[in-house]
Amino acid sequence: MSEHLEKVVQDFQERFNAGLHCYAGETTLILSREHLLEAVQSLRDECGFDVLIDATAVDYWPEQTPRFHVVYQFYSMAHNLLLRLRVPLDGNAPHVDTIEGIFPNANWKEREIWDMFGITFDGHSDMRRILMPYDWVGHPLRKDYPLGYEEPQFSFNYEEIDRRKPYAKE
Amino acid sequence: MTELRPVTVDELRHLVSERALAGETMLLNMGPQHPSTHGVLRLLLELDGEIVVNCIPDIGFLHTGIEKNMEAKTYQQAEVMTDRIDYMNNMGNNLTYCLAVEKLVGLDVPPRAQALRVILAELQRISSHLLWLGTSSLDLAAMSVFLYCMRERELILDVFEMVSGQRMMTTYIRPGGVWRDVPAEFEAAVRHIVEIMPARIDEYESMLTTNMLFLERTQGIGVISAEDCKRWGLSGPVIRATGIPYDLRKVRPYSGYEQYDFEIPTASSGDVYGRYLVRVEEMRQSVRIIRQALDRLPYGPVRSNNRKFVPPPRSELGVSMEALIHHFKLWTEGFPAPKEYVYAATEGPRGELGVYLEGDGGPKPYRVHYNTPSFANLQAMPILTRNHFIADLVGIIGSVDIVLGDADR
């Protein structure tokens, strides 16, 4: 870990009581949801992490506390450093503050997370689905969302399966 | 079937200006079937006469659930899906995924495989830029450039077919190395491309770089500042055209890029013409890298010797019990990866292509997320197109070089 990153990590551990996880030369800080906005603001303004590269989420269903982790990947162009933040969220309908006001490109990334995982971002300016159709029900990347297959029809059960296929009713 | 609910302007009230609600400006759909949206992109335009007041991109028409599907497959099987994400950068997608898997399980890659990966990734970059050059100049009504570009792109796809049996969906780069060694004709075929390319790039440039019609359509169009590029997380030629030399091959080298001597082309204008200059120069630099890699292509194995992750060569199966067991286990069960998470990124033709990969101790990825350049770059469309003519909008979409498969995944 470089000197600058070490300083940032220490600072965050003291100020926000952040957990630290290192693997394969990558540094991850685990933050609680209340500290997210303040931490991201200070990352950009004080620590020089000026680019939000990526934001995504992970679902740990059937676990409930925490069920989701939101993962942010930051990059500092001046120091050439990467830092990841993870925010654990409890329950089936979690919500977390949007960081759109600090990094405008979080807008689409948070829309994608909402679309795929059903995590609500408080204060987001445009919380619509982005990848799935606008009238879709459910959040596909949740672990309790089935992958979905078409039932194979054979001669002995063709009629029976045909009856419950959605198109067959019309 | 459920009935489709009509979308009203009310739902988009927060995205358009007050003037649109009063009926002063017009809302117009462009796409998803418009020919110059390069696939299935829908743009909702707010127009004042012919001038774009606001442009709201709508994506997702090509969403195929690749990330979800990858979770249901083993690490080896899931790689096949990566080809289909950005169908103009198949080798790059494979490479990024393999780098992430190798990082997650701690696999080494032999030098020959590293050099082959570099050669193929750079060939892919040239072929992608050629397609971009052809189609985006077609958008600006320069028909002949397209035909010239397709001619050279075909040579590169022939090389891919030679090494992998497939022109596009190659899956040639595998975790721990590459699928198998390249055939004997490979070197001559790549050398031929390296020899002819510089003169061919001069040819394209002679048609465009100082062409008055082209300059009028590109200079000062779609300008974005360096500061905005950082704020919006843009990467690739878009950010380099504003003067920031941000290229992952230099700042965070992978696959041995630090050994090669090449430059990062930049421009200062930040407009469509700047992005054109950067990409053309990038093709020349790629040729330079390929030439160096070919000259010092080392001999040796092309796959890691770690039998817990990489299947043994076919020849060993008849003579070694161990090899047979490994072969069987790897192709039926797959290999387990630790309960950890990593992020690996490469410089794709369009910008930073990253893979966030999380394992759960089993043989299937728990979560794969592709952080794609087209998704990031498309988000800046409103800034790039503001106060331009509709005719220029087409040129701007072309200059950002979007691939909708890449944006929608």
Automatic annotation (TrEMBL), chain A:
It is an enzyme of class 7 (translocase). GO terms for molecular function: NADH dehydrogenase (quinone) (non-electrogenic) activity; NADH dehydrogenase (ubiquinone) activity; quinone binding. It catalyses: a quinone + NADH + 5 H(+)(in) = a quinol + NAD(+) + 4 H(+)(out). Its EC number is 7.1.1.-. InterPro entries: NADH_DH_suC, NADH_quin_OxRdtase_su_C/D-like, NADH_UbQ_OxRdtase_30kDa_su, NADH_UbQ_OxRdtase_CS. Residues 31-149 form the NADH:ubiquinone oxidoreductase 30kDa subunit domain. It is a peripheral membrane protein. Coiled coil: none annotated. The keyword Lyase does not apply. Gene3D superfamilies: NADH:ubiquinone oxidoreductase, 30kDa subunit. Belongs to the complex I 30 kDa subunit family. NDH-1 is composed of 14 different subunits. Subunits NuoB, C, D, E, F, and G constitute the peripheral sector of the complex. This is NADH-quinone oxidoreductase subunit C. It comes from Bellilinea caldifistulae. The gene is nuoC.
TrEMBL record, chain B:
It is an enzyme of class 7 (translocase). It is a peripheral membrane protein. NDH-1 shuttles electrons from NADH, via FMN and iron-sulfur (Fe-S) centers, to quinones in the respiratory chain. The immediate electron acceptor for the enzyme in this species is believed to be ubiquinone. Couples the redox reaction to proton translocation (for every two electrons transferred, four hydrogen ions are translocated across the cytoplasmic membrane), and thus conserves the redox energy in a proton gradient. PANTHER family: NADH DEHYDROGENASE [UBIQUINONE] IRON-SULFUR PROTEIN 2, MITOCHONDRIAL (PTHR11993:SF10), NADH-UBIQUINONE OXIDOREDUCTASE 49 KDA SUBUNIT (PTHR11993). GO terms for molecular function: NAD binding; NADH dehydrogenase (quinone) (non-electrogenic) activity; quinone binding. Belongs to the complex I 49 kDa subunit family. It comes from Bellilinea caldifistulae. This is NADH-quinone oxidoreductase subunit D. Keywords: Cell membrane, Membrane, NAD, Oxidoreductase, Quinone, Translocase, Transport, Ubiquinone.
